[in-house]
Amino acid sequence: MTPASSGPATGPRKRGRPARTSVSDGPGARDRILAAARNEFAERGYDKTSIRGIAKAAEVDPALVHHYFGTKEQVFEAAIELIFAPAMAAPDAVHGSREGAGERMARFMFGIWENPVSRLPLLAVMRSALTNETAAAVLRGMIERRVLLRMAGELDVPNPEFRAQLAAGHLIGIAMLRYVIRMEPMASAEVDDIVAMVGPTLQRYLTES
């Protein structure tokens, strides 16, 4: 005679989406995971962030993170797209009259960096890219696709992609000195003074043949 079972039958755990619960799954689960990933990557960097840690912060099963976003690399890409959302409009700053395009771009980008709400996550992502090649590759691909290629499409100059990269590199270099390394006198310089100096150089990259 087979003894009665003392509990529900169990079998091999299947991979994929976990069973739905009112707490961990629902219309807001994906948004909670993305917000948690954004915070985890910003606070811990790429190397120290894990799928399990993101799931814990979002109060969901780790399998649900995989279900919505896939690998850690893919979660990172979705998170930095959210973090870099303000910068995605950089090509729009170039769009329009050629006159003043360099100054418009510089003022637009420094406006993002000067805002603590957008600056702190940006700094965290850049630090991750400096220390982890996977993070660097994801960030590089996203900036190329979402910012530089769009910007190049707005430029009526020879080698527009190269010009767009020169402009971006110029601004990123200044951002590193000012916000990451905090090198003086760059760190305490007035933004208007930086824009006045940088604008003509960006103008040459963006408009001069």
From TrEMBL:
The family database entries (PROSITE patterns) matched by this protein are listed as:
HTH_TETR_2
Give the top-rank taxon of the lineage listed in the UniProt record for this protein. Answer: Bacteria
Give the signal peptide range.
none
Q: Which residues belong to any copy of the HTH tetR-type domain?
A: 27-87
User: Which InterPro entries does the UniProt record give?
Assistant: Homeodomain-like_sf, HTH-type_TetR-like_transc_reg, HTH_TetR, Tet_transcr_reg_TetR-rel_C_sf, TetR_C_16
Q: Which residues bind DNA?
A: 50-69
The yes or no answer to whether the keyword DNA-binding is present is yes
Alphabetically sorted, this entry's keywords are: DNA-binding
| PANTHER family for the chain | HTH-TYPE TRANSCRIPTIONAL REGULATOR RUTR, TRANSCRIPTIONAL REGULATORY PROTEIN
Q: Please state what the protein is called.
A: DNA-binding transcriptional regulator, AcrR family
Q: Which organism is it from?
A: Streptomyces melanosporofaciens
